Amino acid sequence: MAQLPLTSLLLETDAPDMPLAGYQGQPNRPERAAEVFQVLCQLRPESADDIAGQLQQNSQSLFALDPPLLL
């Protein structure tokens, strides 16, 4: 994730059988995407705001969302 172009990244929460570290034995939950985002921010040189903005643009583009998502 640190080396991929930011324009190629999305965050997802649809892997209930792949819990985050510390949550073994529990299903994954959508609200844990914030924890994944925090780790992504530690790995990337861009600011958290820039990463969030690009992730939103990537999601809008992939899923053809109109109007844009509100964060």
TrEMBL record:
<dbReference type="GO" id="GO:0005829">
    <property type="term" value="C:cytosol"/>
</dbReference>
<protein>
    <submittedName>
        <fullName>Uncharacterized deoxyribonuclease YjjV</fullName>
        <ecNumber>3.1.21.-</ecNumber>
    </submittedName>
</protein>
<dbReference type="Pfam" id="PF01026">
    <property type="entry name" value="TatD_DNase"/>
</dbReference>
<keyword id="KW-0378">Hydrolase</keyword>
<dbReference type="GO" id="GO:0016788">
    <property type="term" value="F:hydrolase activity, acting on ester bonds"/>
</dbReference>
<dbReference type="InterPro" id="IPR032466">
    <property type="entry name" value="Metal_Hydrolase"/>
</dbReference>
<dbReference type="InterPro" id="IPR001130">
    <property type="entry name" value="TatD-like"/>
</dbReference>
